Amino acid sequence: MATRLNPYLQRKDGDAREVIEFYASVFGGEPNVMSFADVGGMGMPEDQQHLVMHSDLMVSDGVAIMVADVPPGMTHDQGNLHISLSGDDEATLRGWFEALADGGSIDVPLEQAPWGDHFGQVKDRYGYNWLVNIAGS
Q1: 25-29: long-range contacts (C-beta < 8 A, 24 or more apart)?
Q2: pTM
């Protein structure tokens, strides 16, 4: 397997399963989800064992996303996170941009940029910022 850099998103709202399923609806693929209960509870209180300890979505060789719940009492700081998608497959990237915008907001429309590519920025329904760059000819 080649080396890959992929986002690992942590959720404080207990909705990691919903988030990874949304991304599967956007990018395709089948999410793999493990709750704390699936791995013996790991000392978590009974009412928190349903939370997602780890999930991943392998979309392609170059795209993978991981999402987990942050149990109550653990620190969480989403910070100023932006996830970038780029390439020359215009149909795929435009489709992802539009699907990510569903229930979210378009901060920068996907249009011709001064550097010759098409670029846009969207905030998805879970508050994550996505930068999409389609290479120009």
Answers
A1: 25/99, 26/96, 26/99, 26/100, 27/57, 27/59, 27/63, 27/65, 27/96, 28/59, 29/57, 29/58, 29/59
A2: 0.86
